[in-house]
Amino acid sequence: MAKSRSDWWKTSIVYQIYPKSFNDTTGNGMGDIQGIIEKLDYLKKLGIDVIWLSPVYDSPQEDNGYDIRNYREIYEQYGTLEDLDQLLDEVHARGMKLVMDLVVNHTSDEHPWFVESRKDKGNQYRDYYIWRDGKEDGSPPTNWGSIFGGSAWEFDEETEQYYLHLFAKKQPDLNWENEDVRKDIYDMMKFWLDKGVDGFRMDVINFLSKDTRYPDGQIGENDTYGDGGPFFVNGPRIHEFMKEIHQEVLSDYDVMTVGEMPGASPEDAKEYTDPQNDELNMIFTFEHMNLDCVNEDKWNLKDIDLVELKENFEKWQKSLYGVGWNSLYWNNHDQPRIVSRFGDDGQYREKSAKMLATCLHMMQGTPYIYQGEELGMTNVRFDQLEDYRDIEIFNMYDEKRAIGWSHERIMEAIHAKGRDNARTPMQWDDSKSAGFTDGEPWIAVNPRFKEINARAALEDENSNFYHYQALIDLRKKHEVITEGKFELVLRDDPNVFAYKRVGKDEALYVLCNFSDRTVKIDDEGLVESLRDAEVWITNEDQGEIGKLQPYEGVVYGV
Ligand code: NOJ
């Protein structure tokens, strides 16, 4: 147990593994822990420092493990605690670190606490969850909608009360007002930290504190349910809970923490991540991921406006500079593939994927790479709804149909935004099932695996894989990437995302063309300052100062 705390996470690159879709060694169609061990050398070669492992705990898998039945056991299809210990050893032996997912806003309804809790009102675990009487007319205690659709409350016949579930019915919310809950969670965290895990990614951690008056939320036009967000996002006691977690658990270990925080603004992020506050190291913002939709409804599609995207990054880069810390991501298991989203997954797939990586990796913060992103993996377009697996997709389908959306419109939204885009199996090679499994994969493989796979990427020195590797090397070599100040340039250019980073002894310029046209750099001064600069990385052989080819992304050191 190391007491000293250091900032190693500021210079680290994190790689996220979604275990179900990573690598199957048993032939059951699902990835497993031994499968991860088998690929550690691949990750080492990429150059990453930290692995974030999405949940591997015992779970009925209603939401692929974000519904935990036992926090101290491994889901049997993934392996055993011994496998996990071995993984940890093997990760450490290679000089890397392992961060686990911490899902403590809710458990599975099959967790023994909930099984007890629902038995009777006097049960000692009753207060571990949030039980309320219905309104006078018998309707749910509040009008809140659940994030996965339907009401956020489920009526339980046995004791004739409702319980709160911000996500699926099988994911009841824990009652963080209850000190015993908090204590049990802290013990569980210590169990993992004492094993040697190097930190936590904390699932929807800014939802823990609810406004215990439970008011109704506002109902928008066309909405069936009210918005409970104002009463649980960054709720009344959230900073107290974060400080307590730090005080009771984290302060004893040299670990990293990243809080997943939908609805957090840069101002919130400052408060959560300012080291003086003793809360978290960094958070995941959702703001840049919410720019290509209408009214924060991700299924209601809208084209991205590059100027808005740039200004959003600028806001985060500037607000946290010198105070807190950013995490940098395009992808995770909840987001569609970035090359299909802000790039071009057709003619310019390789090129635009590299450009997007360059654009993100030169900013200040800790970069996160999601499995397959380093290969430029793309979205999938299943024709049949039945080919999807995600509970969110099925609930959304019914809900949108009920308000009159056509089947075609919904399928288009799923193709663009469905979480299963990220969850198709990792493409290792061009053999059956992309080398992911010898069995039947739990979700179909993306048909593009013959062209896009790790083996092909490793054999091609110009591949996306090596581009990511080079970006990682650059970050290790140049302090300006970690420490430099961010300045947006060409602010109003609708096609080019350009910025400068200014450090103690060095500076760099990043110029990224988000369009499929050749564009001229409309700033003589900028062009002049690039004349004597050195190209640190580029995805373009025909690069010319003053012009950017389609999807060109280039970094100049000055
Ligand atoms: C956020 C996780 O990233 C997502 O996959 C999950 O469904 C919800 N939280 C609920 O745990």
Automatic annotation (TrEMBL):
| Catalysed transformations (reactions) | Hydrolysis of (1->6)-alpha-D-glucosidic linkages in some oligosaccharides produced from starch and glycogen by alpha-amylase, and in isomaltose
Q: Name one GO cellular component term.
A: cytoplasm
Please provide the record's keywords in A-Z order. Glycosidase, Hydrolase
Q: Which InterPro entries match?
A: GH, GH13_cat_dom, Glyco_hydro_b, O16G_dom_2
Q: Mainly resides where?
A: cytoplasm
Q: Name all Glycosyl hydrolase family 13 catalytic domain ranges.
A: 16-423
EC? 3.2.1.10
Q: Which Pfam families match?
A: Alpha-amylase
Compartments (UniProt record): Cytoplasm
Kindly list the biological process annotations in GO that this record carries.
oligosaccharide catabolic process
Q: Which family does it belong to?
A: Belongs to the glycosyl hydrolase 13 family.
Name of the protein in question:
oligo-1,6-glucosidase
Name the species this protein comes from: Halalkalibacillus sediminis
Taxon lineage:
Bacteria, Bacillati, Bacillota, Bacilli, Bacillales
